[in-house]
Amino acid sequence: MRPTLIKIAILGPTVGFLLFCILGTPLGYMHPANESALGIRVYFSPKGGCTEAVVRELDRATNSVFVQAYSFTSAPIAEALVNAHKRGVKVEVIIDKSQRTEKYSSSDFVAHAGIPTSIDAKHAIAHNKIMVIDHHKILTGSFNFTKAAEENNAENLLVIEDTGLAEKYADNWNIHRKHSEEYEGK
Questions:
Q1: What is the DSSP letter of 184?
Q2: Catalytic annotation on 103?
Q3: Cα distance between residue 89 and residue 86, in whole Å
Q4: Axis crossing angle, helix 50-60 with helix 75-86, rounded to the nearest 10
Protein backbone atom coordinates (compact mmCIF):
# COMPACT_ATOMS: atom_id res chain seq x y z
CA MET A 1 0.00 0.00 0.00
CA ARG A 2 1.52 3.32 -1.06
CA PRO A 3 0.70 6.39 1.08
CA THR A 4 -1.11 9.30 -0.52
CA LEU A 5 -0.26 12.88 0.35
CA ILE A 6 -2.62 15.73 -0.48
CA LYS A 7 -0.44 18.72 -1.32
CA ILE A 8 -1.97 21.94 -0.03
CA ALA A 9 1.03 24.23 0.39
CA ILE A 10 -0.59 27.00 -1.66
CA LEU A 11 -3.96 26.70 0.09
CA GLY A 12 -2.67 27.71 3.51
CA PRO A 13 -2.98 26.55 7.11
CA THR A 14 -6.75 26.95 7.38
CA VAL A 15 -7.36 24.42 4.63
CA GLY A 16 -4.77 22.14 6.23
CA PHE A 17 -6.60 22.31 9.56
CA LEU A 18 -9.94 21.59 7.86
CA LEU A 19 -8.47 18.56 6.11
CA PHE A 20 -7.05 17.38 9.42
CA CYS A 21 -10.54 17.68 11.00
CA ILE A 22 -12.22 15.89 8.08
CA LEU A 23 -9.65 13.20 7.34
CA GLY A 24 -8.15 12.77 10.81
CA THR A 25 -4.52 13.09 9.72
CA PRO A 26 -2.31 16.09 8.99
CA LEU A 27 -2.60 17.18 5.36
CA GLY A 28 -4.85 14.22 4.63
CA TYR A 29 -1.94 11.79 4.75
CA MET A 30 -3.13 8.21 4.63
CA HIS A 31 -0.60 5.67 5.80
CA PRO A 32 -0.09 1.99 6.51
CA ALA A 33 -0.05 0.85 10.14
CA ASN A 34 3.71 1.19 10.58
CA GLU A 35 4.07 4.65 8.99
CA SER A 36 3.49 7.99 10.68
CA ALA A 37 1.85 11.04 9.16
CA LEU A 38 5.38 12.40 8.63
CA GLY A 39 6.43 9.44 6.50
CA ILE A 40 8.48 7.84 9.26
CA ARG A 41 8.22 4.06 9.33
CA VAL A 42 8.59 2.19 12.59
CA TYR A 43 9.30 -1.47 13.27
CA PHE A 44 9.51 -3.38 16.53
CA SER A 45 11.09 -6.63 17.56
CA PRO A 46 11.10 -9.43 18.41
CA LYS A 47 10.07 -10.70 15.00
CA GLY A 48 8.63 -7.35 13.90
CA GLY A 49 10.39 -7.02 10.59
CA CYS A 50 13.34 -4.84 11.62
CA THR A 51 15.94 -6.92 9.79
CA GLU A 52 13.75 -7.17 6.69
CA ALA A 53 13.26 -3.38 6.71
CA VAL A 54 17.03 -2.77 6.95
CA VAL A 55 17.75 -5.23 4.14
CA ARG A 56 14.98 -3.72 1.96
CA GLU A 57 16.41 -0.20 2.42
CA LEU A 58 19.94 -1.41 1.67
CA ASP A 59 18.69 -3.15 -1.48
CA ARG A 60 17.25 0.21 -2.60
CA ALA A 61 20.48 2.16 -1.97
CA THR A 62 21.94 3.72 -5.11
CA ASN A 63 24.71 6.05 -3.94
CA SER A 64 26.00 5.62 -0.39
CA VAL A 65 25.51 3.83 2.93
CA PHE A 66 27.26 4.97 6.10
CA VAL A 67 26.88 2.63 9.08
CA GLN A 68 27.60 3.01 12.78
CA ALA A 69 27.03 -0.24 14.66
CA TYR A 70 27.49 -1.05 18.30
CA SER A 71 26.91 -4.76 17.77
CA PHE A 72 26.89 -6.27 14.31
CA THR A 73 26.21 -9.97 13.88
CA SER A 74 23.28 -10.06 11.44
CA ALA A 75 24.21 -12.16 8.40
CA PRO A 76 21.31 -10.84 6.25
CA ILE A 77 22.29 -7.21 6.95
CA ALA A 78 25.97 -7.94 6.27
CA GLU A 79 25.05 -9.64 2.99
CA ALA A 80 22.88 -6.68 1.96
CA LEU A 81 25.79 -4.30 2.67
CA VAL A 82 28.15 -6.43 0.57
CA ASN A 83 25.57 -6.63 -2.23
CA ALA A 84 25.22 -2.84 -2.20
CA HIS A 85 29.02 -2.53 -2.33
CA LYS A 86 29.12 -4.90 -5.32
CA ARG A 87 26.49 -2.73 -7.08
CA GLY A 88 28.87 0.23 -6.80
CA VAL A 89 27.26 1.87 -3.76
CA LYS A 90 29.83 3.54 -1.50
CA VAL A 91 29.56 1.61 1.79
CA GLU A 92 31.54 2.39 4.93
CA VAL A 93 31.14 0.92 8.41
CA ILE A 94 32.18 2.11 11.88
CA ILE A 95 31.92 -0.41 14.72
CA ASP A 96 32.43 -0.38 18.47
CA LYS A 97 35.74 -1.70 19.81
CA SER A 98 33.92 -4.67 21.40
CA GLN A 99 33.52 -6.13 17.90
CA ARG A 100 37.28 -6.85 17.80
CA THR A 101 36.85 -9.68 20.29
CA GLU A 102 33.35 -10.91 19.43
CA LYS A 103 33.36 -14.61 18.57
CA TYR A 104 31.36 -13.84 15.42
CA SER A 105 31.08 -10.36 13.99
CA SER A 106 29.66 -9.43 10.61
CA SER A 107 32.23 -6.65 10.56
CA ASP A 108 34.80 -9.32 9.60
CA PHE A 109 32.59 -10.38 6.67
CA VAL A 110 32.17 -6.82 5.34
CA ALA A 111 35.83 -5.92 5.90
CA HIS A 112 36.97 -9.01 3.98
CA ALA A 113 34.56 -8.04 1.17
CA GLY A 114 36.50 -4.79 0.71
CA ILE A 115 34.14 -2.45 2.56
CA PRO A 116 36.09 0.17 4.51
CA THR A 117 35.51 -0.74 8.16
CA SER A 118 36.73 1.20 11.19
CA ILE A 119 36.68 0.86 14.97
CA ASP A 120 35.62 3.80 17.10
CA ALA A 121 37.71 3.21 20.23
CA LYS A 122 37.63 6.83 21.42
CA HIS A 123 34.51 6.34 23.53
CA ALA A 124 33.73 3.98 26.40
CA ILE A 125 31.03 2.56 24.12
CA ALA A 126 30.36 3.60 20.52
CA HIS A 127 26.67 2.92 21.01
CA ASN A 128 25.23 4.42 17.82
CA LYS A 129 23.05 2.18 15.68
CA ILE A 130 22.48 4.13 12.50
CA MET A 131 22.62 3.96 8.75
CA VAL A 132 22.55 6.99 6.47
CA ILE A 133 21.44 5.92 3.00
CA ASP A 134 21.77 8.02 -0.16
CA HIS A 135 22.07 11.28 1.80
CA HIS A 136 18.34 11.40 2.55
CA LYS A 137 17.36 8.35 4.60
CA ILE A 138 18.23 7.45 8.20
CA LEU A 139 17.74 4.11 9.92
CA THR A 140 18.07 4.43 13.68
CA GLY A 141 16.66 3.26 17.00
CA SER A 142 17.60 0.81 19.70
CA PHE A 143 17.79 -2.01 17.13
CA ASN A 144 21.29 -3.50 17.00
CA PHE A 145 22.19 -5.11 13.69
CA THR A 146 22.06 -8.58 15.25
CA LYS A 147 20.08 -11.80 15.04
CA ALA A 148 19.24 -11.53 18.77
CA ALA A 149 17.81 -8.03 18.27
CA GLU A 150 15.42 -9.39 15.63
CA GLU A 151 14.44 -12.63 17.35
CA ASN A 152 14.70 -12.11 21.10
CA ASN A 153 15.00 -8.48 22.20
CA ALA A 154 12.45 -5.70 22.62
CA GLU A 155 13.81 -3.19 20.09
CA ASN A 156 12.67 -0.47 17.72
CA LEU A 157 13.80 0.75 14.31
CA LEU A 158 12.85 4.04 12.66
CA VAL A 159 13.23 4.64 8.92
CA ILE A 160 13.22 8.41 8.39
CA GLU A 161 13.35 10.15 5.02
CA ASP A 162 14.63 13.69 5.62
CA THR A 163 17.58 15.19 3.73
CA GLY A 164 18.36 17.82 6.37
CA LEU A 165 18.34 15.32 9.21
CA ALA A 166 20.36 12.83 7.14
CA GLU A 167 22.98 15.54 6.62
CA LYS A 168 23.29 16.02 10.39
CA TYR A 169 23.68 12.26 10.90
CA ALA A 170 26.27 12.11 8.09
CA ASP A 171 28.21 15.00 9.67
CA ASN A 172 28.23 13.17 13.00
CA TRP A 173 29.28 9.95 11.24
CA ASN A 174 32.22 11.80 9.68
CA ILE A 175 33.32 13.14 13.08
CA HIS A 176 33.47 9.56 14.38
CA ARG A 177 35.17 8.28 11.23
CA LYS A 178 38.00 10.80 11.65
CA HIS A 179 39.01 9.44 15.05
CA SER A 180 38.38 5.77 14.24
CA GLU A 181 41.03 3.16 13.45
CA GLU A 182 40.95 1.04 10.31
CA TYR A 183 39.78 -2.54 10.87
CA GLU A 184 40.98 -5.26 8.52
CA GLY A 185 39.06 -8.11 10.15
CA LYS A 186 40.30 -11.24 11.87
A1: -
A2: no
A3: 7
A4: 0
User: Residues 31, 85, 129, 137: which is the catalytic one?
Assistant: 129
Q: What homologous superfamily is domain 40-182 in, according to CATH?
A: Endonuclease Chain A (3.30.870.10)
Q: How many CA atoms lie within 13 A of 57 on its CB side?
A: 27
Given a contact cutoff of 8 angstroms between Cβ atoms, the answer to whether 115 and 81 are in contact is: yes
Q: Pick the catalytic residue from 97, 134, 147, 162.
A: 134
Q: Is 135 part of the annotated catalytic residue set?
A: no
**Structure confidence at residue 125 (pLDDT):** 82
**Residue 112 designated active-site:** no
What are the residue boundaries of the structural domains of the chain, listed by start? 1-32, 40-182
Q: Residue 131: exposed, middle, or buried by beta-carbon count in 10 A (0-12, 13-18, 19+)?
A: buried
Active-site hit among 127, 136, 147, 176: 127
Q: Return d(Cα 112, Cα 60) in angstroms, integer.
A: 23
Nearest to 83 by CA among 62, 66, 69: 62
Count how many residues are written for the chain.
186
* Tens-place pLDDT, residues 43-99: 999 988 999 999 999 999 999 999 998 888 899 999 999 999 999 999 999 998 876
